[in-house]
Amino acid sequence: MRKTVHTILALAMVIAMGGGCSKEEEKKDSTAKMPSVTKEPIAITAPFLPAMDNAPFLVQVNDHKLTMSEAMPEITMRTQQYLAPMRSTITSIQELNLLTQKAQRDAVSNVVNQFIAEASLLIAVESSKVKVDEADIAKFTKGAGPVPSGMPQEELTQRVKIAKFIEAKMAGLADPPDIEIKKLYDKSSAQLRMPESVEARHILIKIEEADSERTKKSKRKKIEKLRKELVKGEDFAKLARKNSDCPSGQDGGKLKPFGRKAMVKEFEDAAFSQKIGVLGPVVETAFGFHIIEVLARNKEQIVPLEQVRPRIVEFLKYNILLDALRNKLDIKYGKEYSKAIGG
Length: 343
Hints:
By secondary structure, the protein is an alpha+beta fold. It has helices at 8-17, 68-83, 93-128, 134-142, 153-171, 178-187, 213-231, 236-243, 265-273, 305-326, 335-341; strands spanning 57-61, 64-67, 193-194, 197-206, 258-259, 283-285, 288-298, 301-302, 331-333. A hairpin with a 2-residue loop joins β1 (57-61) and β2 (64-67).
């Protein structure tokens, strides 16, 4: 089963549970958003777990073992992902060490738990002799998007077997009690928070890098003319479909709801300050000239329980399934695991 940790379940869970402006306005320089600090940030290097022998294992599930050498790439990636957002605010070696140690302990624990889940499902699938055909593969991958290029057919088939197994087993489980659903909902409130957002439509006249000043002035005149037509009552969607250089023009200029920091600053400032239903002045960004109309503004809120209830039910049932599978297996934690989590 020597698979890289976290690869088997990714597609399987997506396909078992279902699953702007061509992103141009969403592109932004993340380095420019980093908070300024008075001290030079400490460099974050590779994780520094205690020296370990690669042969001993972290965890063994029946005959399937996970060694440190197999888990290290995933542990390293997760540790660095945890530390990356803090890069500019870490100001001492001591702080870096403490944060790194915590990140590594959490990463090891999560990777081991992920491996146990993978092994539990793979063993169950093998013993239940799940079979799939081309129709199953087509059905289960339809909602998961394109299959990663270069994926061996054997691995795809294995993933679909897992997805089919999960779907069948979860269908036979009763829904968890309302009190458990509410408990998980309350515990997940931070992840269920929807930030303030805006619904808007726009028309873009794109500026090319090679445009001369004369060409830019011509484009500016064009966007101003379009705005005058809109003020006189011309249909916004019609003009957007005919004139906008943004792919959203095909949808009448309408963008998906977006929050702060999703768009370039000039576009964001206009969208979050304009009155609803009122055309704003022409806005210039690095992408070109925009006419923006705000259609609605949504306050920050917690996603209602009923809206996420189906997903919570799926999550709880999935964990009930995993617990049942794990209880049938022989799971042993190695010395390397205790060293890694400081046990």
